[in-house]
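Let's sit down with a protein and look at its sequence and fold side by side. Once you have written the record down, we can walk along the chain together.
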Amino acid sequence: MRKITVVGAGNVGSTCAQRLAERGVAREVVLVDVVEGIPQGKALDQWESAPVEGFDSRVTGSTDYASAEGSDLFIVTAGVARKPGMSRDDLLKTNAAIVRSVSSEIARVAPDAIVIVVSNPLDVMAYVAMTTTGFPRERVLGMAGILDTARFRSFIALELDVSVEDIQALVLGGHGDTMVPLVNYTTVSGIPLSQLLSMDRIEALIDRTRKGGAEIVSYLKTGSAYYAPSSAAVQMAEAIARDTNRILPCAVYLEGEYGEEGIFLGVPCKLGDGGLKAIIEVELSEKERSDLASSAESVRSTMAALD
């Protein structure tokens, strides 16, 4: 890709920009923020690391969306971060106003761009971005399932004392306490997880995964997670930029898939050139289907609160 813009120069956004540049995902990486000096300073600092890290992606920062004009892809991280005791939904109206403003600017300066939304509450913010930009669902995606799946995989690796690279997992549903880890699709080097751990231990890992973001917030006190979320967003961007056709769990607008429509929900997606190429429908048990429906209902209730 020629240009990727990251909106929001906080911890998630600035880390996204650094990872994009270091991996050479785009020739130019632009960091945009409303606070004068912050995007310029962080971008310059990152560019000065290029001779050491060995990348040539040009990193620039600005408060003016003119610098993002013609971008192929945007990663939207702008918004208020969670504090201890806050749920993702507590951020709803504040972040909705921010995402609406950002989305309007994106549609103005880059009407053909692809948008990856990271701002919370994720599923609803992706909906706000899609309705504001008017972009088709193929070009507006939410980063959620990759992060949730990564957390699940990381906790399994700790539990079994094995490499995270050997663990395959899939987490569907809304990005929050109602997410749906699919145990039947979770393996360790091809071995079903249920053969390696008791259901009690698996349930404990699922519970920790659902509360993974809150656990980090409880430690940080004045902020929320950013290393893992930025990695997840960049993995999506890289799959799209390099047209790799990767199958990744992402929040996308459903039009009847999994029996749901009119909402963003985390499901397995094929990502490549142009954004969303296909939604993969996997077989679910009766309980998994019920849990996914409950997760969808939770997203709908948050959307209703926004309206």
The two ends are 36 Å apart (CA to CA). The mean pLDDT is 94.
